[in-house]
Amino acid sequence: MKCTVTFRHMQPSDLIRTFAEERVDRLTRLIDRGVEAQVTLTKENHLHRAHVELVTDGSLLLRGIEKSEDLRASIDAAVDHIMRQVKRYRAKIKSHRAPSHAGRELPLRVLAREVEPDTVDVPDVEKAAKIVKQETIIARSLSVEDALMQLDLANTEFLVFTNSDTHQVNVVYRLPDGQFGLIEAHAAA
Question: How far from each other are the two terminal CA atoms of the chain, in whole angstroms?
Answer without folding.
Answer: 47
